[in-house]
Amino acid sequence: MRTVLALSVAITVLFSSVFSTSSQAASQVNKAEINKKQAVELAKKVEDGKTLKITVLNDIYTVRILKSDGHVVDVHVNKKTGEVKKD
């Protein structure tokens, strides 16, 4: 009985440390900011075209894209979250 109890405690400790380590790694990945190149890649997933200009204001990249039909579109990418919004 003691062996079964000791084994179940050991397994519980092992799994809790594994999940704790993976959640710490995930939170460190989320803390990394998006760079300009990544912002352009994210913006082009939403709007295809030629990148004209990238500006930075606070935590937002604005990627200006010239579409094939001649329209210019601004796509906003949050530096911290990677969230993409179109104008």
Q: Describe it for me?
A:
By secondary structure, the protein is of the alpha+beta class. It has helices at 2-31, 36-46; strands at residues 50-57, 60-66, 72-78, 84-86. Strands 1-2-3-4 form a four-stranded antiparallel β-sheet, with helices on one face. The model is unreliable at 17-29 (pLDDT under 50).
What layout of secondary structure does this protein have?
Elements: H1 2-31, H2 36-46, E1 50-57, E2 60-66, E3 72-78, E4 84-86
Antiparallel strand pairs: 1-2, 2-3, 3-4
Structure keywords:
4 strands, 87 residues, single chain, alpha+beta, 4-stranded antiparallel beta sheet, elongated
What is the residue-mean pLDDT, rounded to a whole number? 80
Oligomer: single chain
Strand content: 25-35%
Outline type: elongated
Tally of helical segments: 2
Rounded to the nearest angstrom, the distance between the terminal CA atoms is: 65 Å
Q: Low-confidence stretches at least 5 residues in length (pLDDT < 50)?
A: 17-29
Q: Helix share of residues? A: 40-55%
Q: Which value, in Å, is the CA radius of gyration?
A: 22 Å
Main sheet makeup: 4 strands, antiparallel
Along the chain, the helix and strand elements come as: HHEEEE
Instruction: Give the number of DSSP strands.
Output: 4
Q: What's the arrangement of strands in the largest beta sheet?
A: 1-2-3-4
Class from helix and strand fractions: alpha+beta
